[in-house]
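== Polypeptide entry ==
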Amino acid sequence: MADECDVSEIVTTFLLNTCVLPSWPSEHRVQAAVRCAEIASVRPADDEEAQWIPLITGSVAEFYIEPMLPHVGDIDVMCHHDTQLAIPRGHPPPTQLPAEFHNYIKVAEIIDSHLPGYVYLLLRYLLSQRTDDGKYEYFEHNNGLYFLNNKLSYEDDDRKYRTIHGPALLQEFSRESHLLSVDAVPCIRCLSWPPQAADWPTRHRNYGWPDSATLDRVVGNGCDVVGVAHRQYRQHELMGKFQYRLSFSRAEIVLINSWMPVQQITYHLLRFYLKTERLTESADNPGAGTLSNYHIKTLMLWACELKPRSWWAENLNLVRICVELLHTLSVWLTDTRCPHYFVGDCNLLDNSFNVERVASKLTSVHKECLSTWLIRHYIGQGLGLGLGLGLGLGLGLGLQPFGGVSTSVKLQKAVSEIVRWRLNTSLHDVLRAVNYAEARITAHVSDDSLTVHSCVCWMNELTKIDKRFSIYFSSIALLHVARKTGGLSRNGFNDKWMDILAKVFGRNSSQCCSVLSRCRTELNTSELVELLQKSAVEHLTTYRQIMARDFGSVVTIVTTDFEALYAYKRGDYQRCLQLSTQNVHVLLFARCAHSFLTFPDLIHLMDDDIVSLTALALIVNPKCREWAYSASIFQVTLSLYLMTQCQLKLHHSVTSLAQTLAYIKVAQRRQPRDRPLDQLTLKLIERKVLGASLN
């Protein structure tokens, strides 16, 4: 094996270059946004007047790096009622609240238990919002009613969240869907920083982390209260029903996002090592007496506060950093001491933990063995991923474990090739995430689950991820409203659709005021639908232009396919023919093709033939009914269809149709056989051209 120091440095270089800082969305972040919108679209089962206010937490929200190997095991979403609020004991009830809260609020006081970090909630006030100034007035409630910690629940029409996972309601998916499970954690919001953690903002810090701005932001976010008793008292007759835990997830998101990249990578490596070695609790390693990711997070938070910046950044060696932190964790386990980062006198370990084996293993870890372990289990997996996706190293390297790598030169060469492949394929990863987001947004909105509340959630979450997604969502939302109102009477365009349009356009924008005014006073149903479709097509064209700008180097994307489709729908066949012909010339021999989705809201722009063919494709390939295999059509196929239809309607010559038939033949040869809608569409227009030529 290569010199130990050289190997640890090579490992460090590999990690620094493959744990990239993405300027793009991840599929995990998009899936989390979908789940937030899904939760926001339904009512809590125990309060029909309430709405859920979701917040993405956990790994998806905490990590800003994108490691080469998976770093997100599931999706965590906290959600609180807009009709409930917690305040510290003795605090006056609030007179003003964020706009997300309801007009009527139940306010509970946070009462300390005998266990640090665990509390009870006593109903203390009822708030009512005044109509004149929007402020809340309060009424005392002195009946001594404590909140049950199992009263909060989430249940939609499909009963997706029915499995209890600790304090969370678990949603699981089939392996084929490639979706992560979702832990939805009901909670109660506390807008104030809790007295139980009063010492945290003011305690002395030698090395300036967190800085004052971060401290202020953390304290300003307050905390949440989660309905779960301490694990030693969950079977207790009273405490098991009424005890809550203070949650600092909001604080942790802010703090972990303020870390240096080296600190985020270290956190990722520690989690990866302990999980792979089955030292932390996971789906395949359950148990109340094992460590959890929260212990690792606590270790990292303390290390970031107690270690100087130079410890992390000077003579940077990730293996050395991880070894020292694993030894610290070993000492904690030996002493049965894991101090809570926020709440004083709260120990996250007790005698029920089976720590001897773990502590002994961590004590034995040293730089050389961890370097070797990372080569075998981390870099080895990275090499396997590269080979599986077409990376040809030409080094004759084995994978069990890196068999041919016996010198630092060969190891360095292998690592360099993986890093180069990682950087060269990054734009493809971006495009895959964007395509995923398009399909998820379109499927969710088309599934009739769009409400005013979920619309707000969509706009907020998508803007955080990538502004291009908010443009795309606005387009689909407009088409959804057009589709839903198109089959209604004039009076069917109700306040719900008006409010959704106001959220999409932005209530104060001139476009919003103009459109909503015309919707109310001037337009009949068909005019309204046309106006909404026209606005949607404008948004979608802008979106296509952004896509072509950002991804034109890896895929050919034309920007006028929606314009051409809309011109065809309006009967402007000459304009449609012009745009479609241009698009065919660009796309016919393109190396990589882009698709046009055929979900209900988008297919509403198309004619009866495409609608019928889509239905037939769903019959031929039932997997197309699932969003992951959504029935879609390549841009070139759609452009050929529109081009042919316009030529036929404009009575073009046989010579012109013969050229189109040649284009169709080329497209048929180039299309994959597992694309039923493309194959059916090309076959249809081929027959139409041949029929017209014979006549």
